[in-house]
Structures are given as structure tokens and as C-alpha cells.
Amino acid sequence: MKKITFLIISLQFLAACSSTPMNEEDSKRKELQKYRQERNELDNKIAALEQELTDTQVEEKVNITVTELNQQRFEHFIEVTGIVEADEDVNISPESSGVIQKITAHEGQQVTAGQVLGKLNTDALERTLDELNIQLELAETNFNRQKNLWNQNIGSEMQFLQAKSSMESLQKRIESMKAQLQMSEIKSPINGVVDIVYQKEGEMGSPQIPFAKVLNMDKLRVYADVSESYLTSIKQGDTVKLTFPALNYEMKAPITRVGNTIDPNNRTFRVRINIQNKGRNLKPNLISIVKLRDYVSEDAIVVPALLVREDFRGEYAFVAEGNGEEFIAKKVHIETGKSQNNRTEILNGLDDGMLIISEGYNQVSDGSPVAF
Questions:
Q1: pTM confidence score
Q2: CA nearest neighbour of 176 among 93, 94, 96
Q3: Is 234 helix (H, G, I), strand (E, B) or coil?
């Protein structure tokens, strides 16, 4: 009997000990279920608010600015470096050899064609000329006497002819000597300014040695080398813009000549522009920036270059389309041509009268409602 009673008491104790953990686990499960239910309710509320905000954003119009496209003149220019040269730039040398006796010109002097710049020593030539003049007087006297005798049928024909030949020979020698005296004068062949006098008095002058440099500062020319790829675009008579950075000066002039030869070293051809140097501020060898037009279209569609964007399909721009009251942004893929001064010609995709989005294009996508 005591054993049975002890066993019953032991079982009751074990049952009481095991019931406490089971109650705690049930409580935790109920608490977890409650939290999950609350989380689901919050998720539903969050989803509902997000949908409301999305619907509001879809309906909201983006404020933009549009520009109506119109056909206009479009020009494209290229710039190359040119060099100024004098149209008349002459190195003057004596026509004969001799010691330079006198220099009458100085650097910076304005001279005219034919003006004497210097003179060679002609003492020997002048002495020879004096001797020839004396011989000529005697020859002329002898000729006149022989001629009188011949007219009177006195004397031989041979004597008359010899006297005549001697006189004429001396006359030719005197003319030659005078020509040599003139060649001893160093003259300027052009109107211009004496830029450099190379020699000094007392030095030996010669046709092989330059005496002075004279150039015409009124007439200049600019030479520029242009890539052969523009050979069909650059024409004689086209007006170009010349900029001289050193002088902060600009001018326009027509192309005087287009070269016919391609330089094999740099694949360029030469253009020449004649210019008038009225103020004489331009100098030979001065650098000039030559701006040449290589393309022009009279009825082009032109847009600012920053409005042209690019995706995986190519270049595009946004335009505004609508019925006059409601407008949307439309993505239009385009074909572009040349660009100049941040302006791009549109060859295909945009037409006259379209409304291109010029401000706010970063805030729209294809199909976005817009207002302007």
C-alpha cells in the first residue's frame, strides 16, 4: 500500500513539472502570431500608400519649355593656320661687280621703282669712257674729211669706208660703256620699303651677293594648307575670315587661288588670299587663323547640340506632342549632320513646326505628360 501511494505522488510531481514549459511555449507562439498579423497589416498600409503616391506622380505633369523648329541657314566652317607673305619681296643685287662706293638708302626708307639705292666705284669705267670720247672726236673728224673727199671724187672708197667703220665702232663702244656705268647703279625694281641693307660701303658688290631687301607692304598675301578631304568644298572666290591673334585684328577677303597640287608629306593643298595692308600693321611671316566655309544649307533644321542625346539605338531628342490641350513627351530618334558653335544640323527625324523640348528634357521620359 505504501509503495502504491509513493508511485502516485511521484507521477503527480512529474506531471506538474512538465506542464510549466508547455504553457510558456504556447504563450510565445501566440505572441509571435500577433506580431506577424501586425506586420501584415503594416505591409498592406505601406503598399496602399506607395500606390497612392505612384498614381499621384503619374498624373502630375512636368513643366517644360519648348521651341518650335523652323528651317534656317546653316553653315559649317573649318580653321587652319596661315602665314602672311609680301606679294612683292625682292632681294636686290648689283648688275655688275665692283666696290660699293656709296649707299644712298637706309633701312625703313620708302622707295619707288627705279630709285638708286647705292653705287659701285666707276673710276676705271669713266676714264675709259673719256678716252673713247677723245678717239671718237678724231674718228668723226677723219670721217668727215673722207666724206668730203669722196663727194669730190677724190680718194678711194676703201679709205672712206674705213673711216666710217672706225667712227661707228667707237660710238658702239661708248654706248656699251655708258650702259656699264648705268649698271653700276643699284636701283629698286619695285615701290616699297627698304627692309634690310646687307652690305656696307667699301665691300665688294656682285650679282651673286644680295645688296638690300625691298618689299611692298601695301600688298600682302596669306598662304594656308588645307586637308585634301576638303578639296571639293573649298572654291576660288569663297569669302574667308582672317584673324591675326598677335594684333587682335580680323578681316574678310576672297580666296584668290586654290592650289592644284597635293603635298604628299601632309596630304594638304594650298590656298592663297590676297589682302590690302592699308594701315601697314600686318607684317610678313605673321600668323593668321583662316576660317573657311566647307558646308552650307539654306533650309536646315538646326537644334542646340545639348538637346541631342544618345541611347543604345542611337541619337534622339524629346519633342512635345498633343492636341492643343494635353501634351506628352515623345522620344524621337534622329540622324545628325555637322555641328558648329554648339548647333547641330538634323538630317532626319525632326521636321519644320515640331516642338522640341529645350528645357526640362532631363525630367521627362517617353510618354510623360508635360505642360508648358
A1: 0.63
A2: 96
A3: coil
Give per-residue pLDDT as tens, 6-65. Answer: 444 444 544 444 444 556 777 777 777 877 888 878 878 887 777 766 555 455 889 999
Can you tell me the distance from the alpha carbon of 326 to that of 318, in angstroms, rounded to the nearest whole number? 16
CA 252, CA 23: separation in Å to the nearest integer?
103
Distance CA 63, CA 51 (A): 23
Distance CA 190, CA 192 (A): 6
What value does the mean pLDDT take over residues 243-251? 94
Nearest to 163 by CA among 179, 182, 148: 148
Strands 98-103 and 116-120, bridge-based pairing? antiparallel
> What pLDDT is recorded for position 1?
43
Mean pLDDT throughout 206-217? 91
Q: What angle do CA 112, 114, 117 make, to 5 degrees?
A: 80
Radius of gyration of the chain (CA): 51
Q: Please give the pLDDT value at position 83.
A: 96
Decide if 335 contacts 303 (C-beta within 8 A). no
Give me the DSSP letters along 302-333: EEEGGG-EEETTEEEEEEEEESSS-EEEEEEE
DSSP 202: T
Concatenating the DSSP letter of every residue in 212-231 gives EEEE-SSEEEEEEEEEGGGT
What is the grid cell recorded at 77? 566652317
To the nearest 10°, the Cα dihedral for 123, 126, 128, 130? -140
